[in-house]
Amino acid sequence: MKKPESARQEGFTLIELLIVVIIIGVLAAIAIPAFLNQREGAQETAVRSDLRNVAVDAELFFAAHRTYSGFQSDASFVGFKNSADVSFAADPADFTVSDYCIEGSHAEIAGRTWRVTADGGIAEAPCP
Q: What is the pLDDT of residues 58-68, one digit of tens each?
């Protein structure tokens, strides 16, 4: 015998719910790696941008003193507002009359270092 319309149970079956969960899982498996790649790209851009800003400071120092020697000891990157988790390193020996090399890295990108030199080039490599 057929139940009346008001007595029929409404809802989702177990199969329908499983299909929805599987679809959500597939979408997450596609989206999460793409998100992580975008995040690393943004961190790399932050390092490169901060290195450009430090290079401008070095050029201002050169304009005032006609040498890059002493830039790191004079400025020591104190007061420089860098992005979160971005750090700089420079050896005083890397600052000469006509050249300099400053390294930058991001705390969440292990093993990758960028450098900026007096020619304005930013490369993914440590200072020589």
A: 888 899 989 88
